[in-house]
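Build the 3D complex.
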Amino acid sequence: MKKTFYIFSNGELHRKENTLCFEGDKGRQYIPVESVSEFLIFGEVTMNKKLLEFLSQQEILLHFFNYYGYYIGTFYPREHYNSGLIILKQAEHYLDDTKRIELARKFVEGAVANMLRVLKYYAARGIDLAPYIEELESISGKLKENSTIEQLMALEGLAREAYYETFNLIIEDPEFRLDKREKRPPTTRLNSLISFGNSLLYVALLSEIYKTHLDPRIGFLHSTNSRRFTLNLDVAEIFKPIIVDRTLFSLLNKRMLDSSHFVKELNGVYLNEKGRAIFVNEFENKLASTIKHDKLKRNVSYRYLMRMELFKLEKHLIGEENYEPFLARW
Amino acid sequence: MQDGRKMYVIMVYDIKVERVNKILRIARKYLTWIQNSVLEGEITDAKFERLKYELREAIDEAEDSVVFYLLRTTRYSSREIMGVQKGGEIRIL
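Done.
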């Protein structure tokens, strides 16, 4: 219900008359504070501490991205759902190898199953993906065996490599070929789209984590370190194929993006402001679209599905119900 | 149910000039400005009650008037605009 707002232009965001106001080139725009859950800021935006205080009180998150669209950080208001118990349980499941692998495996299983779901959808539309599907299925089989985190990560890497190879078959536009997945910096248009989409997903999950008792600093598949949030990266693995990849397939196969939406800089290729706005719009539509949920017997949005995933994780941690990853049905 | 029951409201008002700014200020916290004396937006039951409470404190019930049109969903509605579009929700700034 509360919504995400994106700021691509330059200007000042401030508190005004107990609500939010953005003043940029296009003039003054009021944003109803009660309708905001978070801001994603790409433009050069000025703000002051008074605004941060107000946002903190309203539990609104600010996610910042640099000029190239890389995520740089979040203003994460002092946790409002503080739970010592969940933090302890998260740490316990991280420190106990058996418990950690059990969870890490679920994330990889979910990721591979959802990649397969995407491939089977396109296979049913007449694209020959049989060898890739076979490969992913064999990887999926190997996940069940006892293994270490490193082995799981390696299998996940293999799965993703095979999966990314299919992108050239699925995407009709020859302008968007993927020869090799490259991240820093993304060297081709498709690479930059995947990177941008993934960072939007990481941030969306971080925002959902904020609405639970979980601590984003302790992940299970991704090793916890002193630098960054990792729990959102874990859960993102499950949703990348069905949210990010499907968004970009539909953008490209509907020819909504072309060369005019990209810029080449610093040996990399990046979306420009206009391209980002188109991407973000499609991504938001995806998150807001709903599917019928078997257990709840009602329609839920993909964004809510992500939050449910975190609730399931909480239940697992406190020993109420074993975590099973979300598997797309179509 | 996801985030409390929600609906879509259109708010129009006719307020004595000395209070009109105050009313706009309250409404802008919850709804999006569309044009003079008109705001609209999605809102939960609870927030709608809060909005009404704040307004009730600010208006003079003998002189002012605020009207809400409530839509359970916008699915069967459509909007036509003539002339200039003055305001409206923008989520990509």
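The interface with chain B takes residues 1-9, 11, 17-19, 22, 24, 29-30, 32-35, 43, 277, 280-281, 284, 298, 300-301, 304 of chain A (CB under 8 Å).
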